[in-house]
Write a structure and sequence with these properties.
Number of strands: 15
Order of helices and strands: EHHEHEHEHHEEEHHEEEHEEEEE
Strand content: 25-35%
Number of helices: 9
Distance between the termini: 23 Å
Oligomer: single chain
Number of domains: 2
Shape: globular
Helix content: 25-40%
Largest sheet: 11 strands, antiparallel
Radius of gyration: 18 Å
CATH topology of the largest domain: Tumour Suppressor Smad4
CATH architecture of the largest domain: Sandwich
Length: 291
């Protein structure tokens, strides 16, 4: 059984504008289409889909939408069909999902099912990445960005805006076989290779390789950051002296002050003196995607 679940607010209304196409193709597939009302409702509707025996849940939205849906699909027999209608669509790109709407829907209806890893931070799953520091503060800014900025430009705006007031925290990071202690721009655990609408932050990360790529960027001045930032779109930041990448299945991250924590582009809370316990759940989520 297949079901469509649409987040009408995703992509600043992009999903809402696509409703007629989504409804038409849902009808052609003899599937039910449901709309979500909130992030919490996405979690609940995905849980209900599992309980109803849905085998393919076709979800229209952005990376944040898939983040909430995954909370209920991890460990189930219901496969996530990604219909990318967000601002960045990094998760869909790494899964090899077409970015054109009708092609994405048809792929989600008939494409191959595969299992992928997911990350866990404390009691929350993430499909793409979880971080704290500059990237998470920028994610908070992106959520509030003026409507004039759309798509990947939202993330460029958020980076430049965050740069004005950001002070690098002191991080303490314990990971498999190593540790880091010192001032840093951020630490981000990546299950996919990109974030922020095409920034190839962890070029070698794969969704089914049994490891997270932990990226730590040491303290950089504003001029240095401006020099390094454009290189992240091609992955050429790798090898810079300030960039440290390690493969790990677990990590404990502590921050010297309260900071935003972001998963899959969604601000999910603040550290408030608590450490982040990050781990990997191997092959825990079924998705429709290229192998």
């Amino acid at each position: 059984m297949k079901r469509f679940l649409v987040n009408p607010s995703a992509g600043r209304g992009k999903s809402h504008r696509a409703l007629s196409t989504l409804q038409r193709l849902s009808d052609e597939a003899e599937s039910e289409l449901r709309l979500s009302r909130s992030a919490e409702d996405l979690v609940e509707q995905a849980r209900q889909a599992v309980a109803d025996g849905v085998t393919r849940l076709l979800v229209a939205g952005g990376d944040g939408t898939f983040h909430y849906v995954a909370q209920s699909l991890v460990g189930s027999g219901c496969a996530l069909g990604v219909i990318p209608l967000g601002r960045g669509n990094d998760f869909a790109t790494d899964l090899g999902v077409p970015l054109e709407l009708e092609a994405a829907i048809r792929f989600a209806l008939a494409g191959p099912v595969r299992r992928i890893d997911v990350g866990r931070v404390n009691n929350r799953f993430f499909t793409g990445y979880c971080g704290v520091g500059f990237d998470s503060e920028a994610a908070q800014v992106a959520q509030r960005a003026p409507a004039v900025f759309s798509g990947p430009f939202t993330y460029v705006y958020s980076v430049l805006r965050t740069m004005l007031t950001f002070r690098p925290p002191t991080l303490s990071v314990q990971l498999d076989g190593g540790e880091f202690q010192g001032k840093a721009m951020f630490a981000v655990a990546c299950n996919i290779s990109r974030f922020g609408g095409g920034m190839r932050i962890a070029p070698d990360a794969r969704v089914d390789d049994g490891a997270l790529d932990l990226v730590i960027v040491k303290e950089l001045g504003k001029i240095q950051l401006l020099q390094v930032f454009p290189k992240v779109y091609s992955g050429k930041h790798v090898g810079h002296p300030a960039v440290q990448i390690a493969r790990t299945q677990t990590a404990t991250v502590s921050v010297d002050r309260s900071m935003t924590v972001a998963c899959d582009g969604e601000p999910i809370g603040r550290t408030d003196g608590n450490s982040l316990e990050v781990s990997l759940e191997p092959l825990a989520l079924s998705v429709i995607g290229e192998a």
